[in-house]
Design goal:
An 8-stranded antiparallel sheet has the order 2-3-1-4-5-6-8-7. It contains 13 helices and 8 strands. Helix 3 packs antiparallel against helix 10, helix 5 crosses helix 8 and helix 6 crosses helix 9.
Length: 375
């Protein structure tokens, strides 16, 4: 399901320093829905051959609005995003911001999926469906966007009150957290509100028409539980982004060293390809994102050994911050390999399935690191 409004304003900046714009060249690859939307808006799309060898339709952007990217992601318009990086260091902050943006988008999507499951399985909806056989509410239900928008606008104050009730235990937990600074608490509170703001509007439609009932309060409690779980996962985007950028730095260092090696070949770009799973309107759907980092270089066996060693590193009793601060400066390029261990453990604790592996395509001498998270 998608939010009631599907209007997208593509914002391209003329300068990299423009506020709220990330200056990373990339290819945005569309789903069928995305292709349909852009062609219906008379926007030109191109066909690209990506680093995985597949040809896809999309657009090339340099400077872009993060909110636009996430909007397209939540609407299900993006299937892949590819970054060809000729140089990593100067793009470090942008890469971190992009990875965090996409990962938060997947967390928002999974939160919405879990809440919708609670709605569909609630006694309220089961009762509704028994008496409205021709118009059931289920995972595939789509209510007229304009009618739903008008309904929500009419009940705006009541819906905000519902959101405040849902947010209360999470906000209280944040306020009492002695490990967070005041500014960090504000960020966490904003994030909790963002989770609710990205929910399918149908959720608040159902809550509004059943307000005050036993089923209403049961569903409120379930959403509160789902929100608490979503907030527990909120460290994952940061962990993943740090790991990704350090792996990229490490690979760029290897590629630089390889320029003095006679076996160094044609393409010195490092490619980051992110695949976003298509949302399925059914019970048990899990958001999945698959990053593929690739380049053409020698030394594959050594790199694979490094990753296999780091993923099994015992990190018990060490925080990511402690490890980072205690790492000698000369070993900074290997931080990403250690972050694999931290990310794996963090994902395990919050029920996210994490996989990482490396493979090699000898015919094109390409090494690829795979990072897969299933929410």
């Amino acid at each position: 399901m998608v939010p009631c409004s599907t209007t997208i304003n593509i914002t391209m900046s003329t300068t990299a320093s423009s506020r709220g714009v990330l200056d990373i060249p990339m290819r945005l690859i569309f789903t069928e829905d995305g292709v349909h939307y852009f062609t219906s808006q008379n926007r030109k799309i191109s066909r690209f051959k990506l680093s995985d060898g597949v040809e896809e339709y999309g657009i090339h952007v340099v400077d872009f609005s993060p909110s636009t990217i996430q909007r397209m992601q939540l609407l299900g318009y993006l299937s892949k995003i590819e970054l060809p990086l000729a140089e990593v260091i100067s793009k470090r902050k942008g890469i971190i911001d992009l990875v965090k943006l996409l990962t938060y988008g997947m967390l928002y999507r999974q939160f919405d999926t879990n809440v919708m499951a609670a709605v569909v399985e609630s006694d309220m909806i089961k009762h509704w469906n028994r008496h409205n056989i021709k118009n059931p509410i289920d995972y595939k239900t789509k209510i007229n966007a304009s009618l739903l928008r008008d309904f929500l606008a009419k009940h705006k104050d009541g819906i905000q009150e519902m959101k405040n009730i849902i947010l209360e235990p999470v906000h209280e937990s944040i306020r009492l957290n002695e490990h967070l600074q005041d500014e960090e608490k504000k960020v966490h509170q904003f994030l909790a509100e963002k989770f609710l703001d990205t929910l399918n509007p149908l959720v608040f439609f159902v809550l509004t028409i059943h307000q005050g009932s036993t089923g209403y309060f049961q569903l409120i409690r379930q959403i509160q539980g789902q929100l608490a779980t979503a907030m527990e996962r909120s460290s994952i985007p940061e962990y993943l982004a740090l790991m990704m950028v350090e792996l990229l730095v490490s690979m760029s260092m290897d590629a630089l060293a390889a320029t003095y090696h006679p076996a160094f070949l044609r393409d010195d770009n490092i490619y980051v390809l992110c695949r976003l799973s298509k949302r399925r309107p059914e019970a048990g759907d899990r958001a999945k994102m698959h990053f593929m980092i690739s380049n053409k270089k020698h030394g594959f066996d050594e790199f694979r050994k490094k990753i296999n060693h780091r993923i099994s590193t015992n990190i018990t009793g060490k925080s990511l911050k402690d490890f980072y601060e205690n790492t000698p400066s000369g070993e900074q390029m290997n931080l990403g390999l250690y972050y694999l261990s931290y990310l794996s453990e963090a994902c395990r604790k919050v029920g996210i399935n994490f996989e990482s592996f490396v493979n090699r395509v000898e015919s094109i001498e390409q090494t690829t690191i795979h990072i897969v998270l299933t929410m």
